[in-house]
Amino acid sequence: MGAVTTAADHPAAPAALTGRAAALEAADALGDLRARFDLPGDGSVYLVGNSLGALPRAVAPAVADAVQRQWGRARVGGWNTEGWWTAPQRVGDRVGALLGAAPGQVVVGDCTSVQLHKVHLAAAAETRRRSGGDGRGGRRRVVVADPGSFPTDLFVLHSDARLAGLEVVLASPPEVPAVLAARGDEVALVALSQVDYRTGELWDLPGLTRAAHDAGALVLWDLCHSAGVVPADLDEHDVDYAVGCSYKFLNGGPGAPAWVYVPRRLQAGFANPVPGWNSAAQPFAMTAEYTPASDIAVARTGTPQMISLLALEAALSAYDGVDVDAVRARSLSLTGLALEALDALVPEVEVVTPREPDRRGSALALRHPQAWGVVRALHARGVEGDFRAPDVVRWGVAPLYLSHADVLAAVVALRAVLDGGEHLAAEAAERPTVT
Ligand SMILES: *Cc1c(COP(=O)(O)O)cnc(C)c1O
């Protein structure tokens, strides 16, 4: 594509909307924290923070230090002197603070897919234990999951169900209470995402957690699309397990390690199905016999990805002094303005995301028959979004580094793309491996 446009190139918005954006920006309590990020400074509007968050300024010096001083000078001693060994828990506590989890219950490592695998099988074992140790989990063999889940969540779940002899029942979150009413005494685990990755819909984490518990089932929440932008209050809601990645709204960088939440009450019995040496009670005893750790380290596996982990730790400093409730308020203000502008300027485009504030996460999904062409044409105008097959344009709204003026500029650019038929020509653009 050609050179990215500058902010000055974005077409002008109607004065009423420009004024509205300025008023909302002035009224927002969090403020624009983009100074904490190393953005290209070319006026582009980055609406893909729900896929790969922007680069926090603290990361580059931290990675340079990790490589040059820590690895280069401390060498193997870094495991002790640089706190590498305990970093998965230390960084886990920092993530946990954004999730409403008290320290000692989140550990960072692996990728989300692997963390899902650990939790599915640990939950199956916990269910068997609760049912009196008959080894079969009584009648509780069912895992309820959303058919609209991110594919990896379903791929791993189906594989784990085969391994553990579980039955997967697919039900979208609004249907879950009915499944629990009909078959609640068969359900071992309810596994859902807090925010739908495709539509941006926010599900009722407290209510669905309560419903699962009332039926005697455990609950697992995937927070990939909500961590850092929607409060989860995991401790308060008595959530059993949660997982998430850290490269989306947590800005940890490409391939940043994922995390898992296991509350204290479930740590002693957590049957990690990949019980690598890092999860042992005494990893350096080098015994052939496995004794699991009795704290959150039980969810660790092997040697942590230290450079990525230290990059994530630095990235999380973008959240220093930031309250997730304030991030949530700014997020709703930004997506709310985008909805107002879409209604006013591009009423012909269907917004898939629910309009009610308590039903939307921090992304908007727009349906268009040439969604791919729309994404490419917007890219040429310096507005970055992503395409989700078959017909969705997805805009992630990262409240730390986007302003009300940015989201308004994106909608105005969309109007210009459609007016100029730019999406029709762009629809033919080759699709790269990663969309
Ligand atoms: C992004 C995302 C993942 C990513 O899984 P990885 O194994 O970390 O690549 C998983 N689940 C959901 C819901 C996601 O949005």
List keywords for this structure.
single chain; 435 residues; Aspartate Aminotransferase, domain 2; 2 domains; 7-stranded mixed sheet; 14 helices; 13 strands; binds pyridoxal-5'-phosphate
Q: What's the β-strand tally?
A: 13
Instruction: Provide the residue-averaged pLDDT.
Output: 95
Order of helices and strands: HEHHHEHEHEHEHEEEHHHEEHEEEHH
Largest sheet: 7 strands, mixed
Using the coordinates shown, work out and report the CATH topology of the largest domain: Aspartate Aminotransferase, domain 2
How are strands sequenced across the largest beta sheet? 2-8-7-6-5-3-4
- Rg, rounded, reads 23 Å
- At the first level of CATH, the class of the largest domain is Alpha Beta
Shape: globular
Which small compounds were modeled alongside the protein?
A: pyridoxal-5'-phosphate
- Quickly count the domains: 2
Count of helical regions? 14
Going by helix content, strand content and strand pairing, the class is: alpha/beta
